[in-house]
Amino acid sequence: MKFRAKIINKGFVELFIQVSVTIAKLTKVCVLRVCQDKLCFGPTGPRATREARLWCEVSRGAFYQFNMEGVSEELNEIYLELTSEHLSRAVRNAGNAASLKLQLTNKRRPCLTVAVELASRTGHTHLMVHDLPVRVLPRRWWKEYPEPNVQVSDVSVYLPGLRTLKSIVERMANMGENVLVEANLNGKMNLSVETDVVSIKTYFKNLGNPPKSALSVTQDRDPESMVQVWVENRKLLQFFEGQQINPTMTLCNILSNTLLHLVLVHEDVSLQYFIPAL
Amino acid sequence: MLKCEMNGSQVKVFGKAIQALSRVSDELWLDPSEKGLALRSMNSSRSAYGCVLFSPVFFQHYQWSTSMKMNDDDRPLNLNCKLGMKSILPIFRCLTSLERNVEKCKIFTRSDKCKVVIQFFCRHGIKRTHNVCFQESQPLQVIFEKNMCNNTLMIQPRLLAEAIVLFTSSQEEVTLAVTPLNVCLKSSSEESMDLTNSVYSEMSVDPDEFDFFQIGLDTEITFCFKELKGMLTFSEAVHVPISIHFDFPGKPMALSIDDMLLEANFILATLADDRSRASSPQSLCLSQTQKRSDLIQSNTKADKSGTSQAPECISRKTAPKRLYSRESPTNNPAGETCGNPQTKRANGGNIFEVPESSLSDTDEGPGSPYLRKAAAENN
């Protein structure tokens, strides 16, 4: 098994740092799946249906150099389990790095080696090397960490500005534990929280809907009708506070009373967060 | 009696010194003498000592006079002033605004009332007075012949700071490994061996980057990172290069900055080498005593103020392996092997190839206790 990847573009270095920090905030231990054309970060541990789950992909295009050799020819992938905090700490201060290299190494134990190259003012380069301990997962466990399947959704809508959303969700979190998220096919989305004494509802309109995919169900749904899902405010807040990426595209898919699926995309990175209904 | 005066920018440097010393311990000695005003601090485990000596020319105005009563052998008395960091640190908070607003700062002592008075004369006619009570306590002093060390490095603080920013902050101890051709800073190997789940980091600095580079002894010393960072911040603030003096593991090392106006020294204990005898406090103490007694003799001859009495030696009383106490890791993955140790070199020493046999081969499924706990904590 071999893996080596290098980023030399400053923008992608920053993006990778944002991805690492986001993952560290959303999941303590993550599984890094090295595929031929991308890196996937997913959660670890047994699947509990009540948990919110993260799935992040960084495509090969972000890397200047990307070489991998999987476990075998037919199963050309590598599954590594690591502590997300280690990765985020190792890259956190690398904003001015000339290059960032990831490599799977075997130094007394399997490690993901992160090498950050900084150019100093005297013309010398400083190379900082971190060996992050990883656990290489055997093939028979791979089925425990599947890629989330693309679910059918009842409605799909582009999200309003993330900063606005985050501050609204923060304020709502003070009011109640559960929030109702609803959207319709006319580009409208509402967030509401309700207690015995007060109810707050925020209306967003003119958000736009992504083009209908073949998977979306209920073609004959009235475009004005709202598709609803109740979720725990805490989980929603954790996502907005944790994520560090400045996405170019954000949208959410709602499966009525079942799932809230948030998607952020920025260049070669996509971040998905699945929050189950209450 | 101590009486001294500073302007705004001097207050900033003074405050920075206090901040650097606060990383060593919670107590600060104010030790004035004819040589100037010394600020001293030593931590409770006696593994770190810091001293910043401001010479009289640093201040706008400096006056030190001994009290009327002298002790038996005609040596003038010290101020013997010990302050809590908690009382004095907040006074020198927000140094940039202090620098801007303070026109004059007066510090004087009233030993009859055991008080230090710090007065800030600020813009717009505002005067701020702080009365800090002190405890009578003889300051501790450590004599360290840094010029006798085999290895000396001097570097511009900015360069070193840029280099060490990449070190992850979880590391308490770092190892400095030097040869005449190379200087390398890395995580202490003791730390990374204890926990299978810790990160090992390493970084080299080119000898050319140092203003002064003298390595007489190839060595690796391990010391506390926090104190290096503290001294580095101070050194950056004063724009003076920082010097590192050291020898073999176990012997204390010195971080110092030397300027016309001030001299700062941080003496740190280093981890003794396992292979050599366990750090023998006795011998270390003795040599210090000898040096000390020499110093005291010469001091009394020249009739200078012999400040300290029985300075403590820098060595740990017991021989623990750590500079700081550490709790055992709570989630030690007991039932888990992170790779089969026998296959270490099975692939012919090629560290860039991870053989399949290094896959975790425990019988436990994906939800091992360690991970289950982590996952449970996650949500």
TrEMBL record, chain A:
InterPro entries: HUS1, HUS1/Mec3. One of its GO terms (cellular component) is nucleolus. GO terms for biological process: double-strand break repair via homologous recombination; meiotic DNA integrity checkpoint signaling; mitotic DNA replication checkpoint signaling; mitotic intra-S DNA damage checkpoint signaling; nucleotide-excision repair; telomere maintenance. Belongs to the HUS1 family. This is Checkpoint protein.
